[in-house]
Amino acid sequence: MDVRSQVSMVFHLDKCIGCHTCSIACKNIWTDRKGAEYMWWNNVETKPGTGYPTKWEDQEIYKGGWEKNGDSVSLKGAGKFKGLKNIFHNPHLPVLDDYYEPWTYKYQDLFTAPEGDDQPTARPVSLVTGEHMDVQAGPNWDDDLGGSPDYARQDYNLNQLSQAEQEAMFQLERMTFFYLPRICNHCLNPACVASCPSGAIYKRGEDGVVLINQERCRAWRMCVTACPYKKSYYNWHTGKSEKCVLCYPRLESGQAPACFHSCVGRIRYLGVLLYDADKIQKIASVPEDQLVDAQMDIYLDPFDPEVIRKAQLNGIADSTIEAAQKSPVYKFVKVWKLALPLHPEFRTLPNLFYVPALLPTMATVSNGIYDSTSKSLWNDVSQNRLPMKYLASLFTAGNTSKIVEVMKRLMAVRLHRRGVTVGDLNRNEISSAMSEAQVDAETADAIFRLTSLATFDERFVIPPAHREESIEMLENTGDVKGNTGFGFKERPARGL
User: Fold this and answer.
1) Are residues 236 and 269 in the same domain?
2) How many Cα atoms sit within 13 Å of 288 on the Cβ side?
3) For residues 38 and 102, is the Cβ–Cβ distance under 8 A?
4) How far is it, in rounded angstroms, from Cα 191 to Cα 453?
5) Could you give the residue ranges of the DSSP H alpha helices within 208-279?
6) How many domains in the chain?
7) What pLDDT digit, counting tens, does each position of 421-445 carry?
8) pTM of the model
């Protein structure tokens, strides 16, 4: 047993309001630089939708992640042989149009335009070429189902549904969507690390954060291909790859990452998970329908004396073990089994988990009477406006039974709390739902508290940094040779 610690995250999708405050906070801190204008280390997508970059989930296009080969896995579109073959032309890289061409507006024209009969306008100008341009797309171009025939209907996950099921989703009375915030997953089996010919990408031993050493990066861009979530980016100005660093300078000073701290809906949770690194290869190689359960098995009980002993032998500090015991992520993922990984079939073992959205409460009015019984407020999860097959494609590699289990637990909590606060539901119906979901009243109340009433310190349990573990950080935060901070440089522009 090789016990290691991993800073992990949970996003509760029922609480996300799609305000993009997280994206702006990240943009203002990390990617407000030349060459990084098109990068959104944190982005919020509307589902159904094609996402950012366009159709990033379709690995037949981008060849990201791992594929199963017998009892092992290999990179789908990168690696020694594949990387050498594509070293001068990589057909699987997303191009700028797959993201969007960043632009600003020539506001000065509003003040310098000659007098005339027409109102002057601020024309869009490309941040890449500096030339006037016609805006064609943006990082959230299909936000809120904008242009459904062109975007929402192109969602990769709809391929799992029949034509009739797809059409039913887009009937006006059933049309629905939810928001999907995404950042780097800081995976246990990161394809970006394995693909890098320069060895510039590494996973920090003390907290599992995946970083790119800007001094060693040689811009092969294999990491861009290999990451199935497309969260590694190429800076066209500096000729280096960049990605989310989980705001590690903030973590080391006991602060939540910027996107977490600024989240309006308070959907984000951060904490430590202990895991057994010896199991990574075996778990990454299991059949698809077993991936979720196998990944949950890699995370260890921080209260187990044997786990604690092995963790201490591995140099994990007692404060980190204590943080793992208080971790909200551990509760959502392991104890309550409510949070699931995004596209586990990519086999990277991501450490960002999602609590699926139950979607809005519904009711009916009959003969002028507002019917608020549970059967009209909430249908059975099998009649959810988002089909279980769709959610299973997102979170369980197609295992619909796993999604149904999670949704029934969430529904049991909702029914229980409705019974406590309003008291207008049939008690037998509530008891039956809780019994079927194997959720008792104490657990339901605990889930409700952490979901709705948790304090800042309960949502973010950040272990203190230890000086003896910070050598890597000191070596990679830059020097006096023109660095702008944390290793990101400003150098003469290179070709795209």
Assistant:
1) no
2) 15
3) yes
4) 37
5) 222-226, 248-252, 258-262
6) 3
7) 988 788 888 899 999 999 999 999 9
8) 0.91
